[in-house]
Amino acid sequence: AQTIHQWPVAEIKAVGSPLSLGCTIKGKSSPNLYWYWQATGGTLQQLFYSITVGQVESVVQLNLSASRPKDDQFILSTEKLLLSHSGFYLCAWRQYRDWGIYAEQFFGPGTRLTVL
Amino acid sequence: TQTVSQSDAHVTVFEGDSVELRCNYSYGGSIYLSWYIQHHGHGLQFLLKYYSGNPVVQGVNGFEAEFSKSDSSFHLRKASVHWSDSAVYFCAVSGYAQGLTFGLGTRVSVFP
Question: N or C: at which end does chain A have fewer Cβ atoms within 10 angstroms?
């Protein structure tokens, strides 16, 4: 069975401090990986996606960056946090399919970030 | 550009009632639609999806949704809700490989 793990569960950080959030998927090889951000009480916004190791595409610019150092790992980071970075960060994976065949995304438990 | 509209921000129902959550979309390519549920403070759980074939799709826990190309809609329904169905429901649209574009969500409150 596939499992998706996010760390940490929650973070409280100061404005201007660095951040690193992680996501690991076990039990699937070469998944598509995604990062989403959700403001408190709001909808989800896609931040990044990755189809393969070492390759990451940015969807929105929020002064964040992402990397995929291993097939099963996706990292979200920034050198300097802003108040607007507060929210819920969700990692998701989707199994690669042949063109024209869509597969559902599965989400991790999320990391709640509070920036003070 | 793909957009998703969920017209109801909050729906209140009683246990045993039926419920329909509305979703309208706009997207220029091959369409992939899905519904997710989010219980308070948790990640999203997949309910069901549509990308071709029978426009009525069945999901988990008695949920079903109906796709209509003419109305650009993908409404979610359940015949008899349970208190555990209280959550926020998100409709989403996607192209291939890209991530999901979500609607604003509909909060469902089920009362006994």
Answer: N
Taking an 8 Å cut-off on Cβ atoms, the answer to whether A104 and B34 are in contact is yes
Structural domains of chain B ordered from first start: 3-111 (2.60.40.10)
Which of chain A's residues have a Cβ under 8 Å away from the Cβ of B43? 90, 107-110
Instruction: Tell me which CATH homologous superfamily contains domain A3-96.
Output: Immunoglobulins (2.60.40.10)
Which residues on B lie below 8 Å from A45 (Cβ)? 102
Q: What angle do CA A112, B2, B6 make, to 5 degrees?
A: 65
* Domain extents in chain A: 3-96
* CB atoms B90 and A102 under 8 Å: no
> Across residues B35-44, what is the average pLDDT?
93
Q: Which of B42, B96, B103 sits opposite A43 (nearest CB)?
A: B103
Exposure class string for B66-82: b at 16+ Cβ within 10 A, else e? bbeeeeebbbbebeebe
Beta B106-111 vs B10-14: how paired, if at all?
A: parallel
- Whether A96 has a pLDDT exceeding 60, the answer reads yes
| Residue B11 CB neighbours (<10 A) | 16
Q: What's the whole-number mean pLDDT along residues A96-108?
A: 71
B41-85 pLDDT per residue, tens = 899 999 999 988 899 999 999 999 999 999 999 999 999 999 999
Q: What is the pLDDT of residue B20?
A: 98
Whether A113 and chain B come into contact, CB under 8 Å, resolves to: no
